[in-house]
Amino acid sequence: MAELKLFPIGLQDFSQIRRNGYYYVDKTDIVYKMTHTDRVYFLSRPRRFGKSLLISTLRDYFLGKKELFEGLAIEKLEKEWKQYPVFHLSFAGTKFTDLKTLQIYLNDMLGEFEEKYQITNTNQYEWGSRFKKILKSTYEQTKTEPVVLVDEYDAPLLDTMDNPELQLVLKQEMRKLFSPLKDMGGILRFVFLTGISKFSQLSIFSELNNLNVITMDNEY
């Protein structure tokens, strides 16, 4: 009798799903096509539509974890399995109700990257300058193009919809964080951002005019 598999209800980690033998709908051929067609993408979907799982899949792919993709479509497509420095920024699952909460969160997140690559923080709360330094230093250290994966970029702004004044303050902070992405485009291997709202609605990425928005693309 065949062993029954479990459905990964509530699981958003690709590695956990694969290592524990859960059912997985193989869309890795699309992942391969996307990562070899363009460099900067944006995808908007409601909550519970698989955004975090997709980000997790991209993360493991760019980390070169070939063993997790055995038996999947991408195994026949990818020949190199090169490892890239991956910067995964997730705003999902945290409640942002004031400026301090967001600042602490950003400081901790960037601090982890700085510690990993032994980069000295000289810019305190200047998120853009810090992130730019992290990306540039990592590229110089590893001689490999970094990958940036952002999950639910708009969570802090959606949490403050009832407070337009605070929302504007948080929007400025988020805009600072993402401002280097356009200037650093030449050294970035891949950038993928997800959100619940359209990126144009919140005007955080006004400088990122090279975004490939695949939200309503039939192919995806």
List the helices and strands and how they pair.
Layout: H1 14-19, H2 28-35, E1 40-44, H3 51-62, H4 74-77, E2 86-90, H5 99-116, H6 127-142, E3 147-151, H7 155-158, H8 164-178, H9 180-183, E4 190-195, H10 199-202, E5 212-213
Parallel strand pairs: 1-4, 1-5, 2-3, 3-4
Describe this structure in words.
- This protein is 41% helix and 10% strand.
- It has 220 residues and is an alpha/beta fold.
- The protein has one domain (14-213): Rossmann fold.
- The protein has a five-stranded parallel beta sheet with strand order 2-3-4-1-5, covered by helices on one side.
- Helix 5 packs parallel to helix 6 (127-142) and helix 6 (127-142) runs parallel beside helix 8.
- It is globular, with a radius of gyration of 18 Å.
- The termini are far apart.
- The relative contact order is 0.18.
- The model has no long low-confidence stretch (mean pLDDT 89).
List keywords for this structure.
alpha/beta, 41% helix, globular, 10 helices, 220 residues, Rossmann fold
Strand content: 5-15%
Distance between the termini: 36 Å
Say how many strands there are.
Answer: 5
Q: Which structural class matches the secondary elements? A: alpha/beta
Overall tally of structural domains: 1
Short description:
The chain has 220 residues and is an alpha/beta fold. The protein is built from ten helices and five strands. Helices cover 41% and strands 10% of the residues.
